[in-house]
């Protein structure tokens, strides 16, 4: 008995197959989900992968939030379904208001692709339970609209409630406020981050690290427990 | 305005036609009249003008390119050769790989972002049209002087265009080159390469056969962009006196292309495609005439069915438009419903615009009236062929006599140290990570190696670890000194780069960037370079699978350096065995493989220190390259080396700098007896590599080199926090890093 993890493909999604692979490597069963389909096929969790859904037209994630699949994802996330938004998926989560804040263009205005060091600030969410609080990990970062912003009150609230899940270390790559790389909702089932854990699950490819595998094994731990 | 139908053309034989404005020569226009037995209609003239352009017809280069076929080495790996959208190579385990490099030089100078972006888009569709899933891209780039103000306009635009388009397609960018030279100031070279993977049985070809089969145009709507791109833009020299040609540059939409890729792959998976062609240069003119020409019958097209972005376009403009993100497929009538259903699933517009006929003509109609009636082969394949005159330029002897080995050299260790810093921090030798960090190299999750490694490597089978490696190289300075040797040196370097990562070179693609073919000196460079490349491929056993010729790369009367860019594809049975370039383990022994001679002609040192180009390029020894490659591959397979780095421009000191910085480890180097330290560090002798050998493997490795007759000289050890050339100087890693990495951001950042 293993957990079934839905991986959504929007038009313009790029990292869906990589995410399916990461789910598989972690010992879970990937289930492809299509943006036009409201049916989540009874999955135990959902990942919104990276890419440029709908070409990032209008604003990254702005059109995807209206897709049929997101109606169900939002509904079930509110009921506790674990949801992880990576990069473009994080942008979609902020557009649906499952997570607060927004992503703006990187402060240096360039696309940046690099191995990024992070600190896991909250190791109690559905997607971080396999890490230690304070643990430092490295996973690839690759985006042009990665600068996390929110108003001061929201930021203070996130900090006070321990909802900053990941922070950039060794240099802020895009001007994100308070070095925020990822956040969680209050319940800890919805997590979004800009860096790409699904690209750090095998020792041979990508950066050669497996620091990202913990996201997916965390889920197993939570679901089976 | 009356529609210029075939009937109308017959009735009005003496109408003046704008053949010259469309880039045709008088005799070419006469030939079209002779083929048709009447004057062409406006639509026919449009088709012939784009298809007979230099860019599409290869009319000046064809006679020389034939050698690639005539001198092709025996090679069982080649499944599809020259002539299709891209060549296909068997890489084993039932997989086939297709790859190709193409130019988008002129558009990228006029409008850097869109020019470069659509260059990526075009080559990706070429690969897709073969039936393959695109898995990676690379971009060999050449710009004017790094500190020239216009380079600050062109380079960031080109890089953003490549990133903006490629990143959005989900294709890892795993390699390429960035070279600066004043000769590219008014004519940068933006070449784009794509690699695709498929199973043998999935190979698709561009042909229309089976009378009654439907012709479907799908993808983006057709607009007024890029009209005449190939004839007006790619086939003429830039000249300040004419109006700017920006309207001839196409505008890309990578989101549409991503949908087109996924949609097309699903169409292939369900077996719905009989024949397929992408729409690139020359748009529908090219797609319809090439499909019909390669098939068994004729084709009828109703042009008014084409979905338009701009309803006012004339039929001539629709035929010439180079709007991006379009494909043309031939589909059996019974499969058309499912075909259209899949297009709808991906939100891709698809229209049946015609069908295959049992006739022999390509016939095009506009609201029921016939505007084209031509034998398709005369448009697509039987264009003019020129035997352009060529002659060795009279300045060649003087250039070669101006020996770089005679230039003043550093006299003291301090001077040598200073010159090392100057060379490794010069724009050509400096780290290009400011550029390559703007490309996604991780997407798809199969990137084993990416820039700055010697070759980019992609895993193609997760179970077995089968992978492919590709490197691109070219050195215009060498080719200027001797085009024959220069082309072979580009081939040799690319071949060596693939082998250095542990992959076995299989086949090549090329992009031949030269000046105007109407200049006999340029034509001589072209003839020499193609001859050199064909001879080199024969010697190395790597056939040419296809490629691209880009001529008219010059500003006024001044041509660019002849710049043949060669891409070598290699295969590795298990990517776990790949060899990276980084020195990682302290105490490992460093060996220099090959012979170091006093060869400074065309070198980075001569350029940086003396702003000099003269003498002869390094000697070519292809047997030695083969032997070196065999040793590198065997050592990788059997775990005898932990790092390898090819030696090329900048010589040994460049390679040591890069391998030290990549691994964050220093090296202690001893100058071998009898070798001048300056020559040891800066010579660019070909056929060399530096390798890092674990002590436990030293004997096995040196025995192998000895038995095979490859010179292997122990030059030092991986150690400490500095690159130390004993008895000469030391440079801390921090100093090296500062020198190597600050240059590009400071110039164009």
TrEMBL record, chain B:
Q: Where in the cell is it found?
A: Cytoplasm
Q: Which residues form a coiled coil?
A: none
- Record-annotated residues binding substrate? 103-106, 125, 250, 322-324, 550
Q: Which residues form the Phosphoribosylformylglycinamidine synthase linker domain?
A: 20-59
Residues recorded as binding Mg(2+) 1, renumbered to this chain, are 102, 548
Q: Which family does it belong to?
A: Belongs to the FGAMS family.
Query: Which Enzyme Commission number(s) are listed?
Result: 6.3.5.3
Could you tell me which InterPro entries the record lists for this protein?
Answer: PRibForGlyAmidine_synth_PurL, PurL_linker, PurM-like_C_dom, PurM-like_C_sf, PurM-like_N, PurM-like_N_sf
Which residue intervals define the domain PurM-like N-terminal in the entry?
83-198, 453-572
Q: Where does Mg(2+) 2 bind?
A: 126, 278
Gene3D superfamilies per UniProt:
PurM-like C-terminal domain, PurM-like, N-terminal domain
Q: What is its main location?
A: cytoplasm
Set out the biological process GO terms recorded for this chain's protein.
'de novo' IMP biosynthetic process
- Tell me which residues bind ATP: 58, 100, 510, 547
Q: What's the encoding gene here?
A: purL
The protein's GO terms of the molecular function aspect are: ATP binding; magnesium ion binding; phosphoribosylformylglycinamidine synthase activity
Active-site annotation: 55, 104 (proton acceptor)
Q: What does this protein do?
A: Part of the phosphoribosylformylglycinamidine synthase complex involved in the purines biosynthetic pathway. Catalyzes the ATP-dependent conversion of formylglycinamide ribonucleotide (FGAR) and glutamine to yield formylglycinamidine ribonucleotide (FGAM) and glutamate. The FGAM synthase complex is composed of three subunits. PurQ produces an ammonia molecule by converting glutamine to glutamate. PurL transfers the ammonia molecule to FGAR to form FGAM in an ATP-dependent manner.
Q: Which reaction does it catalyse?
A: N(2)-formyl-N(1)-(5-phospho-beta-D-ribosyl)glycinamide + L-glutamine + ATP + H2O = 2-formamido-N(1)-(5-O-phospho-beta-D-ribosyl)acetamidine + L-glutamate + ADP + phosphate + H(+)
* GO cellular component assignments: cytoplasm
Q: Which residues form the PurM-like C-terminal domain?
A: 211-366, 585-721
Which principal EC class is assigned to this enzyme?
ligase
Q: How does it assemble?
A: Monomer. Part of the FGAM synthase complex composed of 1 PurL, 1 PurQ and 2 PurS subunits.
Q: What's the protein called, per UniProt? A: Phosphoribosylformylglycinamidine synthase subunit PurL
Pfam annotation, one family = AIRS_C
